[in-house]
Amino acid sequence: MECIKNRRTIRKYTTQDVPSDLLNSLLEEAFRASTMGNMQLYSVIVTRDMAMKEKLAVPHFHQPMVTSAPVIVTFCADFNRFTKWCELRNANPGYDNLLSFMNAATDALLVTQNFCTLAEAHGLGICFLGTTIYNPDQIIRILNLPKLVMPVAAITVGYPDENPEQPDRLPISGIIHNEQYHDYTSADINSIYTYKESLAENKHFVEINKIENLAQIFTDIRYRKEDNEVMSDLLKRTLKEQGFDR
Amino acid sequence: MECIKNRRTIRKYTTQDVPSDLLNSLLEEAFRASTMGNMQLYSVIVTRDMAMKEKLAVPHFHQPMVTSAPVIVTFCADFNRFTKWCELRNANPGYDNLLSFMNAATDALLVTQNFCTLAEAHGLGICFLGTTIYNPDQIIRILNLPKLVMPVAAITVGYPDENPEQPDRLPISGIIHNEQYHDYTSADINSIYTYKESLAENKHFVEINKIENLAQIFTDIRYRKEDNEVMSDLLKRTLKEQGFDR
Questions:
Q1: B47-95: per-residue pLDDT in tens?
Q2: N or C: more exposed end of chain B, with fewer CB within 10 A?
Q3: B123: left (phi over 0), alpha (psi -120 to 50) or beta
């Protein structure tokens, strides 16, 4: 599976379109992922219309690939369809809770990764938009998502117009535990993060931001405590509004 | 990617072991999945010891593959390692909240699906244990998971000793929406679920359980409202205990 081993995120795309037939066949294959009780607790929204992309660009913090990619695919945790089926069949659904949201989010994220793998195997490039759960309320309004539906991932898709370096990864010995979790000592942490901290580009980030070290790039600039807490409260409110917080 | 298209869950395995080198190389490739800010917010616990499998069988509702598979791999959302790094570097981490849990769970689930795809491409069979988030507190104790670590998926892995039929899937027109979510009418729901309801095995389930229809198999037997609500409360408590509910 060289396509997984050699993959990298692609943020620049050629103007070549991604045909609907291809996209649908990749999604259909992706739906072969494991799913809780074969309930398929997800829906997929395909965005091609430029006016819709411009609307979606706002919750996605105006990342340029949202409007420049031919297609954006938003994967949603969906207990609405299943609940409607239950109600039509005189069955009493009970999926308006956090556990059910996690079950549906899990289903949706497994399909998301399958779709990304299949797209890349077909020569497409993808970018995972982590912003999807930062502003879920806006995405819900734009995509008209009803109760019991939550966006959990969005992927920009197109034919690659760049070939960036593969990013670093932590040593696998820092991630894999045998039999039980062996919590990290300070020496372990130093060893796990040494290579990342030594990279020229990371040293450059630290220098131009006039801070002490790479960890502070994350805590002071990219993923700040105060922002996380505001967005976390929004996520909780949105889960409640979507009916997942009985 | 025939391995994705033709996949099916495997619950019976031969006695052939899965070598550590193979497992580690599959995991290393799986870690190429998209990850929030390249933070790699996951850890993986590999279970091979029979005494450990027997302990894990309890939270996994004694599903037989938990003790009969050569390996169980538990994927965890992990903000512990990253937080420890920040603390060692005089950086102020703020990842003890629901949003950060979802970010880490997303990272972990993308890696999980990548791992499953790679395992299947190498001739292994897998079963996704949805029970992982039903009894997370027990799994946390057994695997010794510290604060800011939550199990989100567990996979049994081995060489297939069965070749079951591929299960049905809903028609893709019932899952994919263009531009906006078009909520389902009763006619849509009937059309989407007709094929599933028509399957002989599903009719048989309904008959032997002496209930009205397939939807009631889900609501009255497999995924009941009262069970979901108890487990949902446990999930919330466990997230709080693991430090994700500031």
A1: 999 999 999 999 999 999 999 999 999 999 999 999 999 999 999 999 9
A2: C
A3: left
Average pLDDT over residues B121-135: 97
Instruction: Give, as one character, the DSSP assignment of residue B179.
Output: S
Q: CB-CB: which of B44, B94, B177 is closest to A45?
A: B177
Q: Does residue A246 have a pLDDT over 90?
A: no
Element (H, E) at B114: helix B98-121
pLDDT tens across A26-78, in order?
Answer: 999 999 999 999 999 999 999 999 999 999 999 999 999 999 999 999 999 99
Whole-number Å distance between alpha carbons of B234 and A209: 43
pLDDT surpassing 90 at residue B135: yes
Whether A245 shows a pLDDT value over 90: the answer reads: no
Best of B127, B228, B234 to mutate (most A CBs within 10 Å, chain A):
B228
Helix (H), strand (E), coil (C) string for chain A: CHHHHCCCCCCCECCCCCCHHHHHHHHHHHCCCCCHHHCCCEEEEEECCHHHHHHHHCCCCCCCHHHHCCEEEEEEEECHHHHHHHHHCCCCCCCCCHHHHHHHHHHHHHHHHHHHHHHHHCCCEEEECHHHHCCHHHHHHHHCCCCCEEEEEEEEEECECCCCCCCCCCCHHHCEEECCCCCCCHHHHHHHHHHHHHCHHHHHHHHHCCCCCHHHHHHHHHCCHHHHHHHHHHHHHHHHHCCCCC
Provide, as residue numbers in chain A, all residues whose Cβ is less than 8 Å from the Cβ of B113: 33, 109-110, 112-114, 117
- Give the pLDDT confidence score for residue A1 in this predicted structure: 76
* Cross-chain Cβ contact B90/A216 below 8 Å: yes
**b or e along A131-144 (b: 16 or more beta carbons within 10 Å of the residue's beta carbon)?**
bbbbbbebbbebbe
Q: What is the ipTM of this complex?
A: 0.98
Q: Closest by alpha carbon to A10, among A214, A157, A111?
A: A157
pTM here?
0.98
Distance from CA of A62 to the nearest CA of B (A): 17
- Quick: pLDDT tens for B141-181: 999 999 999 999 999 999 999 999 999 999 999 999 999 99
Closest CA to A8 of A102, A128, A89, A109: A128
The H or E element that residue B117 is part of is helix B98-121
Question: Scanning the structure block, which residue is given the tokens 């880490």?
Answer: B104
